[in-house]
Amino acid sequence: MEFLWCLVVGLMTACGVFLMLERHIVRFLFGMILVSNAINLAIFVAGRLTRGNPPLIASDALLPAAGYANPLPQALILTAIVIGFGLLLFTLLLAYRAIKELGTADMDKMQHAEAGQ
Amino acid sequence: MPNPILKLWLAFCALLPLGIFLLIGASYKPPETLLYWPWIPSLDIPFSLRLDGLSVLFASLISGVGFLVQLYAIAYMKPYKGRAAFHLYLTLFMLAMLGLVLADNLLLLFVFWELTTLTSYLLIGFNHDKEGSRKNALQAMLVTGTGGLAMLAGLVMLGEMAGTYSISAIITQGATLAQQPWFTPSLLLILLGAFTKSAQFPFHFWLPGAMAAPTPVSAYLHSSTMVKAGVYLLARLLPVYGDSTLWFTLLCSAGAFTALWCAIQAYRQTDLKLMLAFSTNVILGQLVMLIGIGSSYAVTAALLLIAAHSFYKAGLFMVVGNIDKATGTREYHELAGLRAVLAISFTAALVTAASKAGLPPSFGFLSKEYLYKAGLEFGWVLSGTMLLANAIMVALALLILIKPFLKPHHPKAAPMKAVEHNQLLWLPPIVLALLSVIVPVALLNWYQGVIIDPAASVMLATPQVKTVKLWEGLNLPLLLSALTLLLGILLYVAYPRLKPRLDQLLSGFPSGPAVYQHLLNAVIKLANWQTRVLQHGHLTQYSLQFFLVLLAFLGTVLWQIHPLPSIEWDLYYYDVVLAVFLVIAAVVVVKARTLLLAVAALGTIGFLTTMVFLVYSAPDVAKTQLLVETLLVVFIAIVLRHLSAVSSVPRHSTSRRIIHACVAAGIGISITLALWIITAVPMNQEISEFYAQTSVSGGKGRNIVNVILVDFRAFDTLGEAVVVVIAGLAAVAVLAGKRINKLVSETDKEHR
């Protein structure tokens, strides 16, 4: 069943990358969100998928039930989601500010930093 | 710098080389002395020094001539600003040069080699307010530095072939390395380094250019020391490469051609300093040729010539420096009657020029005899070339002596003033002149025992030491010497008529500096072109470049993996439903022509991902994803009405979008393949198991993911929280910051 998710991750990444190559800065941002979601899923899939056995320990046991889901990628993805959230919000505000300042959402017209050359 | 401190500093700079000179003399015990300190033990690079005949010759020349040059510079540099810095550079250069000739490790040698390049850059460019100085300093550094890099590659090859970087160990392996496949490449690369450093054709042009330096620098770096570093390296590696025909051919042809070509160039100069500079090229060519020949006679001749040339050339440079001091010019045509004000310098010039011309019993005569002996063993071509070059040397010596000093002063000549009241201006050249005579007349046996015999024994596999004698009776070399003198006098007499002819004849040849400038311009053009192509200021093309590189990287990695693993389908219907909806939502984001639809689709993706986490036993992740996704959608929705509509920005051309689609598809496929291969490999669960087993006992918690985050990896989580806080602060700054246009107009006002 991992293969199905390999396909989904690949397709989502492709869509995201295509959007990141667009000229509209907000569409670029949407591409980033897509890629970010896809990569979280990729980490999850790489840690193997388990159905119906979360990494929890029963109150009367010292170890989780046999065949428990891999807790390590879950911890990693939790961190990644939160950091990704911060990054995306910041990018969103940058894009918003850039549009306000430059009066355009066209990335190919955003050359303020290179104007001197 | 206050006066007493400056005096103290100058005294230190002058006495340091003297001290080193004495130290070397005291610690040298033939045949060789090794000193060893660990330097970078982890890389097995020791700071090891070795004193044997060859390095002692160079080290004592460097420190001895260094002492005299420092003395001379104290007088010469008096009117210059920053003379304290000048002495510092000179001292640093001397130390680097000493390190170069004493190092017993190839990499250590390279470090010192580059240090001499750097310090000589500072010295050549000392008059940095003049554009010519800066340009010539850069030219010298680029030429020798490029050669140095090639040499590093060659030295590494040599070290890897030999299995050691210790020079003494490599030399004992000798010619056995010739069988190795890297023998020829390493030889060529090392020669490139040596030829650039020792100014061999076609790299000879930087040396006359380096005459932009103050005269003490020319006397030191460009006659006796730095330019001989290449010669030293060749002499050092003679036992390794000497038997190779390629070595013989390259060194003899480059050396002989450099000698002849630069002799002709020297003859054409009118600046006395440039005459000397080109004649240094001549001697370097002769030395390279001698080492190429590599016979006992040749090695003996080289060992004599190195010292002889250092004495007379440094002395002559100092004399020319004094002429410059006295008249303010070095132009041949403007000088006459200098003997009146430069009596002592004239004496020094007389002796050193005699040594340059090779008159008996000077050191120059002796070394020339052995040069002819070595050349004659290999037929007439080499000897004939040397004869012509030496004859021009004779003519140059006469040119420097007769008109500037002896012709009566006439009104058109440059005015002169007396400068010899400062003893330090004439004492060093007189000492060098004396050495040019005393060594061959009185100290020859000593020189043979201390320098020639031990040096020949490390340079030659089977040393048959030649006992050097000043007078060996009438023989062919003596005859050639006489012929040289005769021809030289003829060339001197013909100078007024011959020089214009030569100028006419050679005017069509491209000059070294011009070729160098063309090459440099071409490199700069290439750099500009590359910058234009890669850094064009278009953001979307930057992203395209970035993803192309990523694709290339993924492609090269994945290309090597095969066969592909088998596929196991083990699906429930809800897996398929989730997957299909995710893909549909992703496609909708791409196709959406309004931002609102795209945001809705993105939200859908977020919630579908949450479902995926739930289905596959990750409740904590699902919870977080749900919260974050809700927040993100809310934020985007808030900003949405301030963002420009999709239609406000034109799309890329269709062909460009086809390229984008291909890149995106390529990356997507690569990610799928990579993930597929990863999931097929058996997984190492060690770390996960450790967390599961110690969760209750170590972390007192039953939710393993939570325990990992807040206990085992608590600092990570703290860092993550800090990142989010910083992002929040930065977002506030972005929102509240001043408008750029306003900012620009404000700075404009300040400027006004």
Description:
Chain A is mostly helical and 117 residues long. Chain A has helices spanning 2-20, 25-46, 71-102. Chain A has a domain at 2-50 and 69-100: Orthogonal Bundle (Helix Hairpins), CATH 1.10.287. Chain A contains three helices and no strands. In chain A, helix 1 (2-20) runs antiparallel to helix 2 (25-46) and helix 2 packs antiparallel against helix 3 (71-102). Chain B has 752 residues and is mostly helical. Among the domains of chain B are: 1-243, no CATH class; 248-527, no CATH class. The radius of gyration of chain B is 37 Å and the shape is elongated. The two termini of chain B are 39 Å apart. Chains A and B meet through helix 1, helix 2 and helix 3 of A and helix 21, helix 22, helix 23, helix 24 and helix 25 of B.
Index terms:
heterodimer, A: 117 residues, mainly alpha, Helix Hairpins, 62% helix, elongated, B: 752 residues, two-stranded antiparallel sheet, 29 helices
Q: CATH first level of the domain at 2-50 and 69-100 in chain A: which class?
A: Mainly Alpha
Low-confidence stretches of chain A: none
**Number of E-state strands of chain A:** 0
**Quaternary status:** heterodimer
- The count of DSSP E runs of length 2 or more, i.e. the number of strands of chain B, is 2
Overall pLDDT confidence of chain B:
88
Put simply, the count of helices of chain B is 29
Read across the widest sheet of chain B, the strand sequence of neighbours is 1-2
Q: Helicity level of chain B, as a percent range?
A: over 70%
CATH topology tier name of the domain at 2-50 and 69-100 in chain A: Helix Hairpins
Could you name the ranges of chain B where pLDDT drops below 50 across 5 or more consecutive residues?
A: none
Shape of chain A: elongated
Largest interface: A-B, 93 and 103 residues
The second-level CATH architecture of the domain at 2-50 and 69-100 in chain A is: Orthogonal Bundle
Biggest β-sheet description of chain B: 2 strands, antiparallel
Q: Could you tell me the strand content of chain A as a percent range?
A: under 5%
Characterize the main sheet of chain A: none
- Alpha plus pi helix count of chain A: 3
Summed over residues and divided by their number, the pLDDT of chain A gives a mean of 89
Order of helices and strands of chain A: HHH
Radius of gyration of chain B: 37 Å
